[in-house]
Amino acid sequence: MIEQVLKRKNLYRAYHQVVRNKGAAGIDHMRVEALLSYLESNRNDIINMVANCTYVPKPILGVEIPKSNGRTRLLGIPTVVDRWLQQAVSQVLSSKFELNFEEHSYGFRPNKNIHKAVSQSLKYINDGFQDIVDIDLKGFFDEVDHSILLQLIYKKVKCPYTLRLIRKWLRAPIQINGKLHKRLKGVPQGSPISPLLSNILLDELDKELSERGLRYVRYADDFSIYAKSKAEARQIGNSISIFLRDKLQLPINKEKSGIRRPSTFELLGHGFVPIYKKGMKGQYQFVVKKSSWESLKRKLKGITKKTKPYSFKERLQKLAEVWKGWVNNYRLASIQAKLKALDEWLRNRLRYCIWHDWKKPDRKRKNLIRLGIGHRQAYAWSRTNMGGWAVAQSPILRTTITLSRLRRKGYESMLSYYQNTQPSIR
User: Fold this and answer.
1) Distance between CA atoms of 351 and 401, rounded to whole angstroms?
2) What does each C-alpha distance from 119 to 106, 175, 257, 312, 397 come to in angstroms?
3) What is the pTM of this model?
4) Tens digits of per-residue pLDDT, 233-243?
5) Residues whose CB is less than 8 angstroms from the CB of residue 394 and which lie 6 or more positions away in sequence, other chains included
6) Helix/strand/coil for 174
7) Which end of the chain has fewer CB atoms at under 10 Å, N or C?
8) Residue 155 and residue 169: Cα distance in Å, rounded?
9) Cα–Cα distance between 114 and 103 in angstroms, integer?
């Protein structure tokens, strides 16, 4: 297999994927932009070291990122060169495993996504399987047993060179706050190969669930099982917990695991609420959980702080980078009303930024006159004692910095985008 990994075409594909993914620099501070020139000088040496089993990965850089619950998640960022090699291995390795992965595994796979995962969950619920076994794997990416994982890879890939290389990546130390720490278990989140390795391990769980004829949905380490009764769900939960503990050596977070009903169940940021329509008793639809709305609004507010030194165009670009991904993620949910309200709030935030950028009273007066306000009124508003946020919501800016004028400057509403990206069949 190592020969397939080191083929020029495969390495070329891996390079372009790493560049597309962008990402931060690793422990050596080399950025993605510098990878091409580095490979032009060192590519053959790296390939020879990999082929001769003398290649030694650099330590990974540990970076803590905030989670929505106020805690942090530790990401492990390999160097750009290691990301390139990991991507090359992942491309070949996935071709060996992908066809044998189970149907209801939706994370980090071709033609699979969050929308298909939550849609399958909703189908189970609306088919009457409304007692849900919700199991949370405790620190999954930190708990993966290397021996079990490598043994599963060995069943399909007998190449000692590839296995040795993967083992080196798994055992590479992590640098946290300037100190190196040994890693004897776990798969670092943040590396190109970690999603595939997690799917290889958890495919054993998928196969166990499929052999038992159970209805389930799995997206990476997030999985749920659907049953017709609470007693059945409890029995399933107990037996699967034992399987995870004994066969895969994965601990369960008992505080976050349990038997749920649809109204108390959340999957990948989606909640489920009953449909109150005649003839649809016992049927549910998607909603977006409250914390996801709060997270989006918090990010938009951060970008539209008046003190951020962005031009109007830059601000719109940064906003779109945040909200477009969010809207795409939740486009199956019914969110029109809340998006409309959020759009209105965001437009006022933009007006606030524009008002602040005008700064001096004379500039405010001239700009208001240019936008059609009479001289006396423009003079009075340019010297108002009202705060900027109050002015942004007042008729003076709402009737001058109008929606049509914002659109001409590049503004796009979230609601319009949501409506234009709806699937033809809901």
Assistant:
1) 7
2) 11, 40, 22, 38, 43
3) 0.87
4) 999 999 999 99
5) 386
6) strand
7) C
8) 19
9) 14
- What six digits make up the tokens of 68? 């929505």
Q: Could you give the CA distance from residue 336 to residue 338 in angstroms, rounded to a whole number?
A: 6
| Distance between first and last Cα of the chain | 43
Helix axes 80-97, 146-156, angle to 10 degrees: 60
Dihedral, 344, 348, 353, 358 alpha carbons, nearest 10? 130
Tokens of 408: 């001409």
Q: Please, which residues bridge with residue 64 across strands?
A: 74
Residue type, 60: I
Give the torsion through C-alpha atoms of 224, 225, 226, 228, to 10 deg: -140
- Beta sheet of 72-77, edge-to-edge order: 72-77, 60-66, 174-176, 179-181
pLDDT tens per residue across span 341-399 = 999 999 999 999 999 999 999 999 999 999 999 999 999 999 999 999 999 999 999 99
Distance, CA of 6 to CA of 39 (rounded, Å): 13
